[in-house]
Amino acid sequence: MSQRFAPDIRAEIDRFVGTCPHDRIDFEAVETAVRRSALHLAARAVEQRLDADLSDHCGPCRPCPDCRQPARYAGRHPKTFETVLGPLTLQRAYYHCRACGHGGYPRDAALGLLGSSLSPGVLRMTGSAAALVSFAESSALLDQLAGVRVQTKQVERCAEALGREIAAAERAGALPAEDPPAPTMYLGLDGTGLPVRSNETLGRVGKQPDGSAKTREAKLVVVWTAESRHPRTGRPTRDLGSASYSAAIESAASRDTDPEPSPFARRVRREAERRGFPRAERRVVLGDGAPWIWNLAAMDYPGAIQIVDLFHAKQHLHDVSKALYPDDAERARLWADVRCDELDDGCLNDVLAVLRSHADDCEQAAQCAAYIERNCERMQYAAFRAQGLCVASGVVESGCKTAIGTRLKRSGMHWTVQGANAIAALRCCNLSGLYEDFWAYRTARP
Ligand SMILES: [Zn+2]
Q: Do 103 and 21 have their domain in common?
């Protein structure tokens, strides 16, 4: 702050603090007034500084960025941008190309204001908020916390554009990679249905009574480590801050005739590679029983240990118990608890024997038995634990909720696939601790 402006802020402080007994000061009012005054002065100073600098007027003509023909200088034009300092009106040199009709402001490009009325600082805040809460809540938060006005619709537009940039950076491998941070690394795969607009499900088979679909499946890959030990049980638990996420509504299906892996398989490869998963001494893939998960794991990580996430397995047993004892919650719970203990202890044959005894009268029991038979190699929990492996991380179980559900599956939300994927990219980047890295990359980009 230059000497010239300091007295203005001084006066603002004196107006509040100097005029009444100190025990009766409304301190919040002081803070708000001084902050507003300081920001206002800073905004005027930046405006004056930039408006006095005419270096963006670089002669009568400059090459058109689109067609390289000469674009002519056509005066200075004002535009108001929403910035961290409040609204800022800047005069900028305008060049117009007659050959292709392109009009451009070199200064906008230089300041990172191209094609947006939000400054980079406000855009970054908008992305931070929209990664966590709805567009309307983001708009309100920006106003409350920073005094920055961004309408709900504009939050949506800007956050989705930012999400698309993040997705492109992720695809291009621009986010920081690491060596395996631990000897054992875990990779979890899961999917969850996202509510989408009706035109996004046309011709798709779903679970609605008429066979139509209301949701599309978002698929998630999460990578983490579990070197920590539970203080009481001594079992491996997820290392805090070690989980990174990547998700999108994408196909995981690839036919044997396809030379290319599916879009989701490519996403998994990128995230695994970025985290150093393929180079870890011991690799573990966790998932529920969905066949696409084990196809993908077998294809890309043939040496990895495959484990059906214990949470998912127990969920299946609880579902069976409810089908067996629909009117007796207590009995259902007891039945499920005993089966879950057997599962924990590695007594799969005991679980199977009980399930088979119900198979004739209970479809769920028959299905669950088939599920365990199909996956029994992946459900040797006692043996896995003896090897010091994490079998019920909660990461896969909660991953879909954390990365997708909490932000994208709230009541009244209906997404376009493109919009959902952009916000999923934004949120995953944020949850994975990569948002600052993305901004460093974005700022350094030519
Ligand atoms: Zn042109």
A: no
